[in-house]
Structure formats: structure tokens, C-alpha cells
Amino acid sequence: MTDSQMKMFVWLLVTAFVACGVGLFWSPLLPWAVGFAGLVFAIYVFSVLTRARKR
User: Fold this and answer.
1) C-alpha–C-alpha distance, residues 14 and 46, integer Å
2) For the chain, what is the domain count?
3) Phi, psi at 42, each rounded to 5°
């Protein structure tokens, strides 16, 4: 994974946590925020696993 890709994942994770924080204040957004965070986390884990497999 390159540095630019790593920065993109960090920004996605930050965005997901912010979305969850917003969801806690506006409950109608909570399912969307949790789903988005889960999706980002799944993509991140998948990328880490594929990177580990290449070594």
C-alpha cells in the first residue's frame, strides 16, 4: 500500500467516526453511520489482509 492510499484510508476512517458521532446526535442517521463505518472497516481489513498475503 502506498502512502497516498494509506492517507485515503485514514481519511475514510476519520470520516466514518465523524459520521458515527453525528449519528449519535441525530438518531435517524445512526443506522447509516454504523453501516458506513462497518463498510470502511471491512475495506480496510480486506486491504491489510491482501497486503499481508503479498509478502
Assistant:
1) 18
2) 1
3) -65, -45
**Tens digits of residue pLDDT in 8-25:** 888 888 887 777 677 667
What is the DSSP code string of 1-53?
A: --HHHHHHHHHHHHHHHHHHHHHHHSGGGHHHHHHHHHHHHHHHHHHHHHHHH
The pTM (predicted TM-score) of the whole model is: 0.44
| Coil, helix or strand at residue 54 | helix
Grid coordinates given for 51: 497486503
What is the domain range of residue 27? 11-54
